[in-house]
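Dear colleague,

Following up on yesterday's call, I've attached the two folding results inline so they're easy to grep. Please treat them as preliminary; we haven't cross-checked anything against experimental data yet. The first protein's sequence and structure tokens come first.
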Amino acid sequence: MWTEVIKVVDWQTKKIYDLPCLGKNSWTKFLINEGYELIDEVQLGDYSIYLYKTENNTYAIYNPQIDDLDVECLLINILSEQDAYSLIVGIQKHASMVVCKNQTSWI
């Protein structure tokens, strides 16, 4: 189910807040205004997880809403590339477990 807002998690402060999906204050505008640039796209089946980086080597991850997973979010203020990719691996594992569970739930 598509939502009008996206959850934003500041990885350092652990604060969670909402940003609109569209409009002048959207999460994409936020990334631009904060100096984040797209540096990688990691495939996750029919979807992609997007990795962003600032000139100060701060990272952000956009995790899309994936079918049965209600996990659309933007993780910001990640301090290392290694931490960012570790989070992406965790997202991939979680998504794979849910997809496998859904495929075998009728057996």
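Below is the second protein, in the same order (sequence, then structure):
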Amino acid sequence: MSIETNKFYLSNLNWLYKSSGEVMTNGQAANLIKTGIKSINIECKSCERNWSSSGSNDNSLSLFAGGARIACTCGSEESIQSTILNKAG
């Protein structure tokens, strides 16, 4: 699924997960918790640049509590809330 923000098109969001550590007494596995973005495809509306980014391999994507900040080489940047990101993946 892809979503459109004011400055970017976002698609193919892959989350990083970790085990919640909760103790389950019914034999089921513990729930997983989203801990970050593994990768995401981004298209800038200003310069039409397309790229794939992850929180660990470049400066175009930085994560913060409650969302992410995306920055393009053309100078376009935007902070996006996690509620919006949840719609993309």
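For the second protein, one point worth flagging: The chain has a mean pLDDT of 84.

Best wishes,
A.L.
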